Amino acid sequence: MEGGIPTADASAFRDCFNLAWTNPYILRLAFSAGIGGLLFGYDTGVISGALLYIRDDFKEVDKKTYLQETIVSMAVAGAIVGAAIGGWLNDRHGRKPALLIGDLLFFIGAVIMAAANGPPLLIVGPSPAKIRGALVSTNAFLITGGQFLSYLINLAFTEAPGTWRWMLGVAAVPAVVQFFLMLYLPESPRWLYRKGRVEEAKALLEKIYPAHQLETEMQDLQESVEAEIKATGSAGKITYRELWSTKPVRRGLIAGVGLQFFQQFVGINTVMYYSPTIIQLAGIASNQTALLLSLVTSGLNASGSLVSIYLIDRTGRRKLAAVSLSGVVIALALLCGIFYHTTTNSPQVTPTVSSYLQNYTCPDYSSVVANAKSWDCMECLKASSPSCGFCASGTDKLLPGECVISNDTVKDACQGVDRLWYTRGCPSKTGWLALCGLALYIIFFSPGMGTVPWIVNSEIYPLRYRGICGGIAATVNWSSNLVVSQSFLSLTKAIGTPWTFLLFGVIAVVGVAFVLICVPETKGLPIEEIEKMLEDRAIHLKFWRNALIIWRRMSKLPEKKFYFVEL
Question: Which of 132, 246, 254, 417 qualifies as a cystine partner to 36, CB 3.0-4.6 A?
């Protein structure tokens, strides 16, 4: 149907993969483009594990949470820059040069970060990698797969000299591979056709489609490009005032931008960027163990992207988003309870009696020794002049331990007698439940809110406004991502880890209400009908409204009226 939204169910993906496998040329195209998604996923995921070892090597980073947040969020900032210039670069010079430039920047960034001798170079290193994922329809799975790969590689290098340098430097390898593959691949047929290079576009399509299908594909390409040029030509006259005064566009923007906002502000990328750190805050002392356990969350995230392919056109966008956010609320409530128990039941501090630690008693603890009975592990870790750590009891980590100055000498002395050393969280008998909470969070989030905001934003806007509205929504997404990743550790330090997760949970509750009230169901509807729906009715309170309409049409039954709340 003209103007309709093509669906992407499981059979469509199987057909796509089968075509790629039987046609070596398409396989090369898919492989070359697929590396881009993996690269971006690796770039955003690798820092979560590398950060554990960067903090060990650079004490300035360990002491200043804003430096940790800035190192983590620079890849996101790079994505915002990439999103801003990627469209212009693609249109002006084609996707091939854009990909080559992206690979070059990625390689340079990986080398800079791997060779960094301090925080400034670690902050400057990440590159604007967003433009490399534009060629693939399975970008969400490739990105989450890249994040899972980064956790595996992080774990592999935990015993290697230089640890985090290898973790960050490995990213240069796939960038080089994609760079050389792209040198031998052509431009996209659409770009060639738009530039008047029709014969080149046709020759390229001949390598992809059988002869009996070629003319149909050329006709479709011509119609699509002409419609795009027409829409783009008129889009130059669009103002933000026009966007807001046009009822379907305004309502579509509220739904699309709101979904992108809630996708980030329920805390998904704190879970993905800081997963090993969160596990350590729950009482897991070892870097290696924290990384190993984090594989669970990254693996579930990648699996959830595949589950979404199955669910998205069976349950619908709106229902899937609402169920997803409802599950996130439950998971965040669980995490809040777990961390509240962990922080309020940490082991007590005992006066320093170990001979190898007697000269290193925490000064803040010494100054209040008369009231030292009120000190526990959490109070010890809050000490700041200088920073202090908790050396757990050698017989049982839940028994009272010693609060001492945090430095490498004391750390080695504590660990040298098989005692656990804590600087980011305290021993807890329920800390392992934090992993269950993180896993539950990902199980609910990934199949729904992980993909629904992007799909809805690709469907909900009239063609004339799709480019500018999609750009606004993407900017809100990446900007929200940056705010959350840049503030998470500061929030945990300022108000505590349990209350940080409670804050995310409250936002998720608001998100559920927003989806139920403001987001229409776009599943299976052509753009003309979506536009009419937004024009006539803004807010829908029934999950099943769109499903009933479609069923009545198929059954040739009269369509009944439904009542909606007007915006």
Answer: 132
